[in-house]
Amino acid sequence: MTNNDSNITLNDFLNELDAHDWCYGYSDDMKAYKKGSENSQRLAAIAEQSKELNALYEAYCKFINGEGDKPTAIEDKPTSSPTTTSNFTLSNLNKLVSDGKIFHIEFIKRTTGELRKMRCRLGVTKHLKGGTKKYNPKTKQLLTVFDMEARGYRSIPVEGICSLTVGGQSFININ
């Protein structure tokens, strides 16, 4: 179990269940089988943390086995009203989001100007393939994160961040 699994929300757990390879047992690739088995055990351990998580896990398992409907997204109740901030910086972002903690972020892409929503983490090194970046993200005011849905690394422009939700607390940029 990773260090962020103890604070997982129902929506985040549902996303983890959606992303899991439920057919890992049929794989001929031992690495894929082992990864799937370990993730399956991790998900079962998370489900044991509360009645709500366990009910969601059991409902999803029934869906996978063709015995019920797919569980739908659950509205997580905000624990407090959003905190407004006048400016996000790399230093205050790193204080808000520690390595391994899942957070939700909304930002404006520099290249296209479109609004992007992402569920991501900092400090993920498992998928690195060697080499270094040809630029320094700090000098370009970029936050490098691991996108949980796309399973890849992304760079977020700090000045484009509209909102950030971490640990049940929301921060909204008013600039």
Please provide a brief summary of the model:
The chain is 28% helix and 22% strand. By secondary structure, it is α+β, with helices and mostly antiparallel strands.
Can you put this structure into words, describing what you see?
This protein has 175 residues and is an alpha+beta fold. The protein folds into two domains: 5-64, no CATH class; 83-173, SH3 type barrels (Roll). The chain is built from four helices and seven strands; from the N terminus they run αααβαββββββ. A seven-stranded mixed sheet has the order 1-7-6-2-3-4-5, with no helix packed on it. A hairpin with a 2-residue loop joins β6 (161-166) and β7 (169-173). α2 crosses α3.
Write down the overall geometry.
globular
SSE ordering: HHHEHEEEEEE
Tell me the major beta sheet: 7 strands, mixed
Rg measurement, Å: 18 Å
What descriptive keywords fit this protein?
28% helix, globular, 4 helices, alpha+beta, 22% strand, 7 strands, SH3 type barrels, 7-stranded mixed beta sheet, 175 residues
What are the SSEs and their pairings?
Layout: H1 10-19, H2 30-47, H3 51-64, E1 83-85, H4 90-96, E2 103-108, E3 115-121, E4 142-147, E5 152-157, E6 161-166, E7 169-173
Parallel strand pairs: 1-7
Antiparallel strand pairs: 2-3, 2-6, 3-4, 4-5, 6-7
